[in-house]
Amino acid sequence: MDEARAREVLEAAGVSAGARLLALGENAVFEAGELVVKVGRSAELLARAEREVAVGRWLEEAGVPAVRPARPAARLADGHPVTYWHRLPDAVRPAGPEDLAGLLRQVHALPAPPDLGLPRRELLGGVERWLRLAGEAIDPADAEYLRARRDGFAEASAALAPRLSPGPIHGDALPRNVHVGPGGAVLVDLETFSADLREHDLVVMALSRDRYGLAPEAYDAFTRAYGWDVREWEGCAVLRGARETASCAWVAQHAGSNPRAREEFSRRVRSLRENRPEVRWHPF
Question: For the chain, what is the radius of gyration of the CA atoms?
């Protein structure tokens, strides 16, 4: 889905043609007056969009600072899921590791809501879809390699013994998914909320340190604010490997239309094949 297609969906949903594109990734995200409107890539993601709205309502009831839904449910417009959110005030500063850690502590203190049916964190669940979207833009051998990694890490992940009590997690816990406005830090992008190992949320930052160039002192600030370093846990390498596999496949879906994505995919898959954990990956 490109911007032009996303705007066609917005028109079908009755959103003003003057909406401003904020992001184009797993969703197309637009600002439209006092609303932020998210357009999903395909109809198969409608259930996830509906759950994201329900999570927003639940977090509001629980008192956790997070983006709030502006309408009670997702809708399908021209074959794409659309959700509506209250626009947040302008940021007063970039979010830092400590902001994220504080919000995760609040989320990790919550019991799983019995009526939401939060799924397990299917970190590897999108791999097949992303590889399918990549099509002929990537080497079929690379696609098969990633499928084999997916299967191996899925089996290993299922056998992990957690250090922390399982429960609700954000699922994509990075400072980019925190917005710091005049009232403080709030969580955004709630679509990956799950009920699973809390360690999933912590491995994300450990991988950021090792693969994406997060400064060691910034990572240390995160672990101090949260109160524990997931790298002390023997299962860390397994969840890290699963996330690397998913992150590599996620880039593949853009390879057909974006030369930068093809280049980044090649860098990532080559570093995995060569077992070179020190190779820097670039955010995409």
Answer: 19
Contact 120, 198 (CB under 8 A): no
**For 33-79, how does the pLDDT look when each residue is reduced to its tens digit (9 = 90+)?**
999 999 998 998 999 999 999 999 999 999 999 999 999 999 999 99
Angle, vertex CA 241, rays to CA 239 and CA 246, nearest 5: 95
- Cβ atoms of 121 and 171 closer than 8 Å: yes
Q: Which pair of structure tokens corresponds to residue 151?
A: 């299967």
Instruction: Report which residue type is found at 52.
Output: E
Is 112 in contact with 168 (CB distance < 8 Å)? yes
The owner of tokens 């809390």 is 198
> In percent, how much of the chain has pLDDT > 70?
100
Beta bridge partners of 179: 186
Token readout for 216 is 């060691």
Q: Smallest Cα–Cα separation from 13: which of 23, 22, 35, 24? A: 35
Q: Which residues contact 76 (CB under 8 A, 6 or more apart)?
A: 43, 46, 82
Q: Kindly report the pTM of this predicted structure.
A: 0.90
CA atoms within 13 A on the CB side of 88: 21
At residue 184, the 3 state secondary structure works out as strand
Q: Give per-residue pLDDT as tens, 131-183.
A: 999 999 999 999 999 999 999 999 999 999 999 999 999 999 999 999 999 99
- Report which DSSP code applies to 174: -
Contact 230, 237 (CB under 8 A): no
Buried residues in 188-221 as b, exposed as e (16+ CB within 10 A): bbbbbbbbbbbbbbbbbbbbbbbbeebeeebbee
| Strand partners of residue 80 | 77
